[in-house]
Amino acid sequence: MAQIDDTDARLLRLVQREARLTSAQLSERLNLSPSACHRRLQRLEKAGVIRGTVALLNPRAVGRPTTVFVEISLSTQADDVLDAFEAAVARIPDVLECHLMTGAYDYLLTVVARDSDDFARIHRGHLARLPGVAKLQSSFALKTVFKSTALPVEPG
Fold first, then answer.
1. Full-prediction pTM beyond 0.85?
2. Digit-coded pLDDT (tens) for 30-47
């Protein structure tokens, strides 16, 4: 784990909210020189703290307003089945997240779709065909109350 001081934490909180800020704008907000700010960003990228910079799209604007959470139970927990499942699910473009879970099911997926008919296509064409699947349960989100990609960052 990289050592993060107070200035790094402030920098990381800023870039998570506004990734398009220039080094000059960041340095002004942090009371640093542009070169010191740039060096910190480079160090955090090299250390793997910053994995990349992305544009967050509005799902409704790109025709994917429906979010579905899919709980998946596998027939076995054998390593080869888990590996095959994980490799196959990673190739489905409609799946945004896949988490190996503890509890009542093995995996939790976040899937985006145009509507329920589109989800039925994704379910039949991809999810039901994943290796080792014994049971699928889907829950449609009625409303996204809030969603964030910003991680809490504290010095330490």
1. yes
2. 999 999 999 999 999 999
